[in-house]
Amino acid sequence: MRTADPELHRQRRQQIVGAAVELFATKGLAKTTTAEICRAAGVSTGNLFHYFPSKLAIFYALFEVDRDEWDELFAATAADPDPWAGLMRVVDQLAADAAHPVLAGLLVEIFAQAHRDPECAALVAEGDQRMLRGITALVERLVADGRADPVVPPPDAARWVLTTTDAFHTRGYPEPDRDRTTEIAQAKRVIARLLGHPEGR
Amino acid sequence: MRTADPELHRQRRQQIVGAAVELFATKGLAKTTTAEICRAAGVSTGNLFHYFPSKLAIFYALFEVDRDEWDELFAATAADPDPWAGLMRVVDQLAADAAHPVLAGLLVEIFAQAHRDPECAALVAEGDQRMLRGITALVERLVADGRADPVVPPPDAARWVLTTTDAFHTRGYPEPDRDRTTEIAQAKRVIARLLGHPEGR
DNA sequence: GTCTATAGAGGGATAGAC
DNA sequence: GTCTATCCCTCTATAGAC
């Protein structure tokens, strides 16, 4: 008898998810057909449904990748003795994600889906809470060190940091004269001013 | 011969668009069928396509309503002798739109569509530019009056105002403990601080 | 008589089920 | 791989205004 190989299983799932990401981002969830995903991933229909029960399940699997990456980054910032540097690393990562065409397209698709699908909304909420916890911890350390004096309590301030980084996402249209570098620098100054950090003066 | 009636034409288009808005917002563009729109609007298939060449054309028509409303508001703020009061009216309007469940759902759908449809992206860009022009004018008046000292030039500051108001939008999941009133007050303080207006101190 | 508004059946394409 | 269902849109037809 043939036993299940967990490593192969994980690899096949990864292969399918990787192929689906690009399709979801460019065509949208509704307009992406399972047949296309099969073609892109190089698996048969039957095989695809062996690894995922539905098209939506593939979509939801995307969240796992994101979760693992952010857990890793926040662990690093927690270990960093300088909370401001850690916060700036978070900002840089968010900027990098927003500049990534596939990820950016995927995100708007995820928000649209979350607005009408409670399961997707729960996954988004979970990710958001994780982000907010991580950033709040950094802000609290800044306040404790006497290096910040935010207009609002740290949890709210953390939310404002996320709002600020939302500026990295275009509203769906390309802005040709966009300078990502100065944009990030501006965002950091804005955050500094919001948090009452010396760099915002 | 029978002549075209512009008023009837306008009315029928409005009727169709009005019915479609809700469907687009709740089900999404792709999952809304023209048959459903017909049923909701109380018109036949043939009639619907007499007024709009395609389903997408109905979607695009939504932008016209938005444009007219904002033109009106910005005309009012331009006439208002107090630019700060005008800016706060803009913020209030943006907050009201974000709190409106149908409009909020529609907006994420529009952004998702814009990410893969250049025509939609152009319409979004046009609306954005209009918003930025209006806000920039208000910021410039504040600076001229010596009532503001933004960290960045007025056009960039206007962009940051819009980014701040993005906080009003949910990320697609219900946030039960959300207090819209204090949220708006916070946003106004944040904007004041960004612009270097006295209320941000 | 000609053009507009409306209606609804069905074509052509395609997705998903079995 | 076949079969059914569905969807966007076209086409033809009718009623009535000018």
As a percent range, the share of strand residues of chain A is under 5%
Form type of chain A: elongated
Low-confidence stretches of chain A: none
Mean pLDDT over the residues of chain A: 89
Query: Number of folding domains of chain A?
Result: 2
Put the structure in a nutshell.
Chain A is mainly alpha-helical and 201 residues long. Chain A is built from nine helices and no strands.
Please give a structural write-up.
The structure is a homodimer of 201-residue chains. Chain A is mainly alpha-helical and 201 residues long. Chain A folds into two domains: 1-52, Orthogonal Bundle (Arc Repressor Mutant, subunit A); 59-200, Orthogonal Bundle (Tetracycline Repressor, domain 2), CATH 1.10.357. In chain A, helix 1 (6-27) crosses helix 2, helix 4 (55-79) packs parallel to helix 7 and helix 5 (83-99) runs antiparallel to helix 7. Chain A is elongated. Chain A is built from nine helices and no strands. The first copy, chain A, is 74% helix and 0% strand. In chain A, 36% of the residues are buried. The longest helix of chain A has 27 residues, at 118-144. The interface between A and B is large, with 43 and 41 residues. Chain B binds a DNA duplex (18 and 18 nucleotides) through residues 1-5, 8-9, 12, 33-35, 43-47, 49-50, 53-55.
